[in-house]
Design brief:
By secondary structure, this protein is mostly helical. It has ten helices and two strands; from the N terminus they run H-H-H-H-H-E-E-H-H-H-H-H. The chain has a two-stranded antiparallel ribbon. The longest helix has 32 residues. The radius of gyration is 22 Å and the shape is elongated.
Amino acid sequence: MPRRALDNPIVLPVLGLLLEQPTHPHQMLAELRRRSDAHAAAITRGTLYNTVAALSQAGWLAPLERQRSGNRPERTVYALTDAGREELVRRLDAQIRTPQREFSRFLGAVAYLGALGRDGAAEALTERGRRLRLRTAEDERRLEEALAAGVPRMHVIEAEYALSLARAEIAWVDSVIEELRSGTLAWPSGAAPELEEEDA
């Protein structure tokens, strides 16, 4: 079994789903996509099935039963084993305790914000702020609905955290836009000074 299969970022969410209840991979895929935009974009059927096979081989989950619905093929329902529960707790503890520098596409792009020019940067950031506000408002509405429906806060605390990050990003975007428009953000002409020094 390739070790990298157990290092896949979806291992933790899969183990977490099985902590809630036994299920089959098809249902896992649908539920992971429903819960997270990031999972919806990143998880393929093949990746999930390979991960489930690796987890089973590692002894972290085990087949519980086979189910058939109508004319569909039989599906294997998996349950978390004691070893899988221990691994879930170990990974959760390590990831919560230890901050990691997580690279985002925006972080990579904003490093070259100067290439857009002052007006282009202000315009792009203004559009980003607008879209972030719309998405954040929708996420706030969904969270409020879940809590009002009686979902325990602990079951949606990751949504609360994501909203906190989104609000912080909106505040940062707004502050940079203000600096661009007021001229208080120094804007180098031509290449960045540190690049010129390296070439010298």
